[in-house]
Amino acid sequence: MTADELINMAIAEGIDVSSQPASVPMSIDYTRSLKDYATAGEIASFLHARKKSHHIYSNTLRKNGIVVKEDMGKYLASKDYINSGALKEAIKSPLHLFYAVESGWKDRLEAYEKSKNYFVLGEFIHQAILEPRKFSRVVVEPGFKLNTKDGVKGLVSFWEDKLDQSQEEDGAPDKEKIKDIVVQGGFDLDKMDGLKQYYAALKAASGFQAIDEPNKLIVDIMYSNYRRYGDGLFFELLKHSKRETSIYYQDPIYSIPQRIRPDAMQFEENIGANTVISVKSTRAESIGHFTYQTAKLCYELSEGMYLDVASAVTGRDFRSTIMIMVQTIPPFGIAAFVWDPEDLEIGKYKYRQALQTVAECREKGLYPGYDAYAESGNFGLISMKQPEWNTKELHPVDIDN
């Protein structure tokens, strides 16, 4: 996609593109030669020649920090460690940083939101890309009614079959054990409330997720696209990768504790380069639109941070980022992108700039808002100039014609 196309797309979405013209590149010091980054061809050549993949043990990755497989809730609770989301806020303004991290306001507002207990397609697909078995673990529940005993019995029979399947494949508990648990809870399986408890317990223990028919069809389409993309690339790409592993790091320059949780990390033994793999669901209608979104959402900062922190903690040289795009709109396509070295270097630059902002704000105890963009002594009055694209000439209007 050309620079002009990106600008036109931004204008269409109402984004101000005047602050950083596409024709004026950032002036930054690269952390390494751009030639040192892995290319798509290099990784593909390695996969073609690979004889087998290797398991990498987590204890070999703990060189200068913590690498641990843990529940997402525990990772999110580690508030003392700053993440890339907070650093993206720091890039916007110190006030954004204060709101998101220091004040507690963001957490308090989010606490008022009710937890979601419904099927979210984007979240499911994100998990299924990393763990393909999940594609086959969604089912459409039969339309029996829960307000009749026969209806509940029909649902019980359906989920007993699913539990039996999971017991054979995954070692799930058998239905007799679940019956005992329900009875020990004081419920009678011959009565309606007991049957409902048994039904709910079967459903929870089965390892399957019930979804409606439209979402089931979408999942099946996505799985078909996933399997055939690049002649089965994803199965080879993710084999023996470390998925959703938490990494904690104490930055020696700014003394700011940091945390990352890449969707996956793959290693040079398996694909020829130590690589961070990110999965992004999107409503973008094309590859070009998705590329624009990666810039709009500042993905480069996250990816630059992931490479630097993963390298520092593991002692391995992470020199590649692969991003897997999944459309949640028709045709539900999937694509794999190897990030451009210059974009990653720009992300690393923004990452370091954000760390510096965080360090200065914390040291001084000051978190100015947009008044930080005003000239010194102007009491927060910011000089404003509309973007250049707004100066286009209007077409004449012939009233009499």
From TrEMBL:
Q: Which InterPro entries does the record associate with it?
A: PDDEXK-like_dom_sf, Put_RecE_PDDEXK-like_dom
Q: Which residues form the Putative exodeoxyribonuclease 8 PDDEXK-like domain?
A: 86-370
Which Pfam family is an annotated match for this chain, by its short name?
Answer: DUF3799
**What's the protein name?**
Putative exodeoxyribonuclease 8 PDDEXK-like domain-containing protein
Q: Which organism is it from?
A: Parabacteroides merdae
